[in-house]
Amino acid sequence: MRGMEIKTYCRELADRAQVAGRAMARTAGVARAAALREVAQRLQEDSAAIIAANAKDLQTGRDAGLSAAMLDRLKLDEKRIGSMADSVRQIADQPDPVGEVIHGCIRPNGLRLQKVRVPIGVVLIIYESRPNVTSDAAALCVKSGNAAILRGGKEAAHSNAAIAACVRGGLQDAGLNPDAVQVVEVADRAVVGELLKLEGKIDLAIPRGGESLIRAVVEQAHIPVIKHYAGNCHVYVDSWADDEMALNICVNAKTQRPGVCNAAETFLFHRDAAQRGLLRRVCDELAKRKVEVRGDAETCRLFPGAKPATEQDWVTEYLDLIVAVKVVGGVDEAIEHVNRYGSKHTDAIVTRDFAAAERFTAEVDSANVFVNCSTRFSDGGEYGLGAEIGISTDKLHARGPMGAADLTTYKWVAYGNGQLRS
Amino acid sequence: MRGMEIKTYCRELADRAQVAGRAMARTAGVARAAALREVAQRLQEDSAAIIAANAKDLQTGRDAGLSAAMLDRLKLDEKRIGSMADSVRQIADQPDPVGEVIHGCIRPNGLRLQKVRVPIGVVLIIYESRPNVTSDAAALCVKSGNAAILRGGKEAAHSNAAIAACVRGGLQDAGLNPDAVQVVEVADRAVVGELLKLEGKIDLAIPRGGESLIRAVVEQAHIPVIKHYAGNCHVYVDSWADDEMALNICVNAKTQRPGVCNAAETFLFHRDAAQRGLLRRVCDELAKRKVEVRGDAETCRLFPGAKPATEQDWVTEYLDLIVAVKVVGGVDEAIEHVNRYGSKHTDAIVTRDFAAAERFTAEVDSANVFVNCSTRFSDGGEYGLGAEIGISTDKLHARGPMGAADLTTYKWVAYGNGQLRS
User: Fold this and answer.
1) Contact flag B411-A111 (C-beta cutoff 8 Å)
2) Burial annotation A298-323 (CB, 10 A radius, 16+ → b, else e)
3) Domain membership flag for residue A393
4) What is the residue range of A132's domain?
5) Residue B22: closest C-alpha in chain A
6) Nearest CA in chain B to A205
7) Do A400 and B412 touch (CB under 8 A)?
8) For each of chain B's 422 residues, which pLDDT tens digit applies?
9) Does B137 map to a domain?
């Protein structure tokens, strides 16, 4: 496609989305939920076709030398398609966010004022290999009365097209405009740049993927972007931590699924906890599980298996079996470290000390701040939001895991009987 | 100041703001409210000093040939300072937005999850001539536990410095960090550009002023900006409008204060309403009040005093005694016109028809949609928000008039007893 063709393609895509978005905004919540149940059923009924399409992507991926991990993320089977359908059904079952009166009052002049939740309009989602994002993102956009433009990775093109066919078919069956969910079918990267410039036609972009993808989107965008940068998550083990609990939380936060954003990357130990043998015990357990420990000088003394950490280690999101460990003087130093080196994603304290828990939750400036549990819980599903459209490390509009309600805005509606301003 | 000095100046300003912002986030609501009452008292006690400082600005303004309207906006007297102090007291009296639990539940695994309102951090406000913005913006930022960096117009430099001295004095008296409110004292425009680049130090920029100021801020900013573009507001007079009410609303919306963003710029008349003489009656009344009418062909036939409108008139925010008038076939065409040409600010319908009111409020995609009242009511004060930090025509984070709560974000706090993810 040449430049002009890409421009036209994008504009037409966005125009169709805008028309569909306006229609979606007028639909009843029950109609959107019914459409999603149709979508879920189609996903299961058409699973053979989805698996066949996925097989093509997998073959292309193998030919292109994708890693085993990448191929695993790409792969769909009956079970994974079943979870995708379940997720769509869960989203369908949630309360309708549209039309909620967030605030309402009668003003002294008799004006009846209401702040009413409404869809944002047209949402562009840009993501990488996992094809389940196609059904999750589509379902969340439909649930919230928006139109979605989905731009998945080219390595999942056939899978995404097959999933999108189920989604659009489900919308159509339920009498909704199928253009409420459109998949970008042109692989050319210029399409993304062009879509990101369509201020006034596309209301929001949500990139899901690695930091380089997100930075590229932010740099090109003329439309608002909700970002998810790094997940450099911390666990601070306080002097008053329960040793057993601290051990379990550290191991779970680091090793239960190390490749995801809410896995822990740095452990901070209160000096007392470190010196009573807890640091050693945790590091021994991690080493058993093939985790490489990179520690400050004190950690290296207490756990000789540690490699010395550099300044770079405190800011690194390893997404791997590596952890940075540091000994701190107390909750003040822990808070200071987290706010300085962290990524404002998810940070946890393990303590029995009420005052330390209060300080940590109040003063750590992160989207998710936990007491006595694994960092792995910062997740839309775990928060009861159904599937998540992403996790925001921004502070504006939405912070942390984002569900359907985060794809809404509001309008102020006032009902009067001839009020004039004097 | 040279480039390096400006960079250093801005960085130090932002660093002080960040320290103050962290301290503010830890303060009790009562302490912030008490500080604001001190500020209000100082504004009144120091009114002579403020008026003296303002006299210098007025003199400089007259020497520079500022228009009478500009000089009027700049001018402070006892009465205006009294209103500024009242406004600060009203903000002090509002409920504390910080710490509000927006949502809370216990998850099936026993995690006690809460979504808690917290300050955004450091807010940069860039504004033009009116010095009352200095106390309003400072008070809203203090109320919401943020640190403010205020950059007013250079024509109000002495006035703003005198007002800021009261604010900082009040903070200090109440035991809060005075750096929670800092005024940029360097007139060089490069300072704004530099501040807008301080991602990670400044969390939000709010420009208040004309469209060119706002576009310039958006173009330079690496930090989030909440925008307020044009206020091209409409009144649609339906066939079922009460004639008397329609007349009064049109006159009020256009003439009560034509230079502000929520004044009406276009009237749409249902053909039936136009043909029964209502268009003529409204236009006659406007003409009496020196309003120039620019109409479509039908309007020009019904009101011979009208000049023919061009396509440009439908998109223009006159901010003046000019109005564009068009005859439409019904509520559909009215909605279509507003969504096509409007600026998503404030649009009103005058009707007794319930269904038309429902359609208009549901389908007009604007921040404020009114039934049977003047567009002039879209205002933080009128909505009960106290003074407003601005009116957002964006859809994300905040829409319409913004009060103290709109200067907050939230964090997710989870309290557990050792929960692990499996």
Assistant:
1) no
2) bbbebbeebeebeeebbebbbbeebb
3) no
4) 3-227+400-415
5) A363
6) B396
7) yes
8) 778 899 999 999 999 999 999 999 999 999 999 999 999 999 999 999 999 999 999 999 999 999 988 899 899 999 999 999 999 999 999 999 999 999 999 999 999 999 999 999 999 999 987 899 999 999 999 999 999 999 999 999 999 999 999 999 999 999 999 999 999 998 888 999 999 999 989 999 999 888 888 889 988 898 999 988 889 999 999 999 999 999 999 999 999 999 889 999 999 999 999 999 999 999 999 999 999 999 999 999 999 999 999 999 999 999 999 999 999 999 999 999 999 999 999 999 999 999 999 999 999 999 999 999 999 999 998 998 877 888 999 999 999 999 999 999 999 999 999 999 99
9) yes
Sheet containing A204-208: order of strands = A181-183, A147-151, A122-127, A204-208
**Chain B residue with the nearest C-alpha to that of A243:** B418
Give the CB-side neighbour count of residue A422, counting CA atoms within 13 A.
Answer: 3
> Which of residues 106 through 165 in chain A touch B, CB cutoff 8 A?
107, 111, 113, 120-121
Same domain, B194 and B339: no
Whether residue B106 sits in one domain with residue B252 = no
A395 contacts B204? CB cut-off 8 A = yes
Half-sphere exposure of A8 (CA within 13 A, CB side): 5
Using alpha carbons only, give the angle B143, A108, B317 rounded to the nearest 5 degrees. 75
ipTM: 0.93
B353 at the A interface (CB within 8 A)? Answer: no
